[in-house]
Amino acid sequence: MEIPRHIAIIMDGNGRWARQRGLPRVFGHKVGVESVREVVRVCAELGVEYLTLYTFSRENWRRPSREVKTLMAMLQHLLQREVEELNRRNVSIRAIGRIHELPPEVQERLRWAMETTRHNTGLKLYLALSYGARAEIWDAALKLVRAVQEGRVRPEDLNEEDFRQFLYDPELPDPDLLIRTSGELRISNFLLWQIAYTEIYVTPTYWPDFRRRELLQAIEEYNRRERRFGGVPE
Predict the structure, then answer these.
(1) Average pLDDT for 140-168
(2) Which of 10, 102, 109, 234 is most buried by its number of CB atoms within 10 A?
(3) How would you class 208 by CB atoms within 10 Å of its CB: exposed for 0-12, middle for 13-18, buried for 19 or more?
(4) Helical H runs in 89-211?
């Protein structure tokens, strides 16, 4: 079985999972953390090189303030608690998004977790935080304009692929497989530049129920696809 080099996941359905059980939404988020742990563990075991999790979108700031505060507290606690396990599994933490929009204490804990795991050489775990793909493309365009104004680059010397150097993390390769849980058929402003030729897999499973079996099913489906990148089979 071919293992995707880069898997990206839109982790959706925490609130609906909780509502179906008559529980507050926060319980869905808490159980969803267990899914994160298992997916990271399985990806590390399989030899996936990059895993990008849509952890908190810029649109999520519109949620009730109590829920946002709870999510930020959970993120801060998770970063503190999981670093030892990530080091044991040789996993490094990275982040993309408008990180400066996060609460200062979360930014501090995130920087600590990234620094503490940066020498690990296995799975690279990217957290998309205060992230929006349109914002990423807009921010990249502004960086490009400044670089041209300052004489560091000439537009005529650039090609489409060169634009990548202005994205949040130029080292992050395009996803091979994008997984969306909860059955919604939309991208939700996630990695729009990077997923031009990504295989998309949608499952009706809510994120709190997405574990090893569901991940392996997604990878098996990926292996049944024929990736042609706009060409034709030889």
Answers:
(1) 93
(2) 10
(3) buried
(4) 104-117, 133-149
Selecting among 14, 60, 169, 176, the annotated active-site residue is 60
Residue 231 placed within a domain: no
Distance from C-alpha of 3 to C-alpha of 23, rounded to nearest angstrom: 36
User: For this structure, is 12 an active site residue?
Assistant: yes
C-alpha distance from residue 205 to each of 67, 140, 179, 234 (Å) = 23, 34, 11, 36
> How far out from the chain centre does Cα 167 lie?
14
For residue 168, what is the domain's CATH number?
Answer: 3.40.1180.10
State the maximum Cα–Cα separation within the chain, in Å, rounded to a whole number: 59
Closest CA to 113 of 151, 143, 165, 75: 75
Is 139 inside any structural domain? Answer: yes
Is 72:104 a contact under the CB 8 Å cutoff? no
**Segment 97-136, tens digit of pLDDT:** 999 999 999 999 999 999 999 999 999 999 999 999 999 9
pLDDT at 230: 61
Query: Quick one: DSSP state of residue 181?
Result: -
Annotated active-site residue 60? The verdict is: yes
**What pLDDT shows up at residue 155?**
85
Domain extent, residue 23, equals 6-224
